[in-house]
Amino acid sequence: MSWTVADAVDYKGFPADRSKTGGWVPAALILGIEMCERLSTMGIAVNLVTYLVSTMHLPSSTSANIVTDFMGTSFLLCMLGGFLADSFLGRFKTIAIFAIIQAMGSGMLATITRLPQLQPPPCKNLASQTCKQANGFQMGFLYMALYLIALGTGGLKSSVSGFGTDQFDDKDEKEKSQMAYFFSRFFFLISTGTFLAVTVLVYIQDEVSRSWGYGICCISMLIAIIVFFYGMKRYRYKKSAGSPIVHISQVIVAAIRKRKMDLPFNPRLLYEDSAESSRIPHTDQFRCLDKAAIVAGEFDKTASSEPNPWNLCSVTRVEEVKMMARLLPIWATTIIFWTTYAQMITFSVEQASTMERSIGNFQIPAGSLTVFFVAAILITLAVYDRCIMPVWKKWRGKPGFTSLQRIAIGLILSILGMFAAALCERRRLLVAKAVGGNTATLPISVFLLIPQFLLVGAGEAFIYTGQLDFFITQSPKGMKTMSTGLFLSTLSLGFFVSSFLVSVVKRMTGSTDGQGWLADNINYGRLDYFYGLLAILSFINFAIFLICALWYKPQKPNGGMEMETMANGSCPEEKC
Q1: CA 294, 295, 297, 302 torsion-angle sign
Q2: Rounded to an integer, what distance in angstroms lies between the CA atom of residue 303 and that of residue 280?
Q3: How far apart are CA 174 and CA 178, in angstroms?
Q4: pLDDT, tens digit (0-9, with 9 covering 90-100), for 302-342
Q5: Helices (H) and strands (E) in the chain, counts
Q6: In this predicted structure, what is the pLDDT of residue 339?
Q7: 29 to each of 38, 223, 448, how far by Cα in Å?
Q8: 481 and 82 in contact (C-beta within 8 Å)?
Q9: What CA–CA distance (Å, rounded) separates 76 from 202?
């Protein structure tokens, strides 16, 4: 066995020594920065709506949209991070630069919440609707801090999972088996960071001070950056294969230029210059793209002997674009899940703030109710890993559900979660009507919200691992960072869809006095109708997902094309 890793280099640019680089130690350092990123981002996002309502005196729907827009932008910027990592910076530099940006944003937010000049005057009776809202100057500083954090999160997040898997050689059986567990541990640490955020940090924000809570986010990120740099000599670095966006554009442009040409009867007549071991077999889907590989004489030649890639592309390059195109229907039908997820950190937290949260003399912070959400994720992962997978392997001969099956389960659980949320909210509104909408704390237990947190949390455990598995294993080897960004963009669009729905429902059902489904004071609204609408939309989306999953045809592996089979049960034969 060679002691060097074929496609990786060390920090000096020499071929990576297997005994001195890579493996679990550097992978753990990379996972550490991801855990602190999650601690920081969720520590801010999950309790932000209560800060906007109680301190900045904004309406509930406006506050919810600010949070969802912030989270949506964070995940949308993953596409930018992936592009920079693939085309210019590489994954290590991308993570380092954007982690520093996120730490700066967290520090700025801690400072803002400390200065009274950047907040409106305190108001004791929020229900009176006479509190002075934050002005444009104050909101401007808040937005600046939030979107610095969003930029940092998006920039580093798309590269962390890719850089982590770079530490394992998929051509070595031992390291390949270790990489199989990387994704489950990756998600476990994300959930651990979220758990600490919704318990420890939310409590500090509510009971000590916001500035202390956000300051801890900044300090934890700075410590993670130092630890990340400490492992610089142990990391394996992969050379960039060029921008996948450019490669995709070349295929599309070449196909458009040759749109009037007829395809040859035999696909073997199409152009192919890739090495035999790395070729991807021709498929019949999206045949219009095959025209990019039609050989058309001198039209395809430049001054050199190499063909112009904007005129002529290899079959393998065309098939890589087809693989990405096949992901899009599944990508589109997973967006709605993250719209339901957005309600767990916005309206569900606001629901909790109106309910009885005391246990003896201790009052649970409203934002900490999401601990049940995180607990559902961790319990679901443990049960799936220790119980479901062994039984499924014994019964079906496979080590677990396929990625599409896990996505389907996640979508079903989100539908049930929204139905449970609607029923809970109807019960809460009946109590509010009986005692009066201006009552600060309604005589109804906050633990009534647990079913919706548990159902959507369990759904996230299935859909997140299913999506991550699907988008990485079903994408071309050179486009995995972009594919990860594509996956994370579903989270982004889910938050933006939430903001859009809130705005539309507010406009369609609202009135001049701040009432409607999403009233400024939710005790006078009909949030249960909004949850019911989401349940119906999710059900329709699930039906479309089933059609897309049945249509999906995975690319058959060939030679050097990696289709890693992970411990959670993915395989090339993806069936829903």
Answers
A1: positive
A2: 28
A3: 6
A4: 555 678 888 899 999 999 999 999 999 999 999 999 999 98
A5: 20, 7
A6: 94
A7: 15, 11, 39
A8: yes
A9: 25
Residues of the chain below pLDDT 70 = 1-2, 124-129, 177, 180, 184, 240-242, 297-305, 399, 511-514, 555-576
Cα-Cα-Cα-Cα dihedral sign, residues 117, 122, 127, 132: negative
Contact 47, 349 (CB under 8 A): yes
- The whole-angstrom separation of Cα 440 and Cα 443 is 10
Would you call 164 helix, strand, or coil by DSSP?
Answer: helix
Output helix, strand, coil percentages for the chain, rounded to the nearest 5: 70, 5, 30
Question: Collapsing DSSP states into helix, strand and coil, what is residue 236?
Answer: coil
For residue 57, is it left (φ>0), alpha (ψ between -120 and 50) or beta? Answer: left
Closest CA to 455 of 508, 379, 553, 382: 379
* Element containing residue 74 per DSSP (H, E): helix 60-76
pLDDT tens track for 554-571:
766 554 333 333 334 444
DSSP state of 564: P
At 129 the pLDDT is 58
Q: Is 512 exposed, middle or buried (0-12, 13-18, 19+ CB in 10 A)?
A: exposed
What is the structure's pLDDT at 59? 84
Are 8 and 22 within 8 A, CB to CB? yes
> 566, 551, 506, 501: which is closest to 69 by C-alpha?
501
The set of residues, in sequence order, having a beta carbon less than 8 Å from that of 154 and lying 6+ positions away, is 73, 74, 75, 76, 77, 78, 79, 80, 81, 98
Cα 414 to the chain's mean position, in Å?
16
Dist. CA 350–CA 254, nearest whole Å: 52
Cβ–Cβ < 8 Å for 176, 122: no
Element (H, E) at 358: strand 358-359
Residue 207 tokens read as: 């009971």
Return the residue matching tokens 């309406």: 59
* Phi and psi, residue 66, nearest 5°: -65, -40
Give which of 144, 214, 189, 528 is closest to 343, Cα–Cα.
Answer: 528
Cβ atoms < 10 Å from Cβ of 160: 23
Residue 228 near residue 29, CB atoms below 8 Å: yes
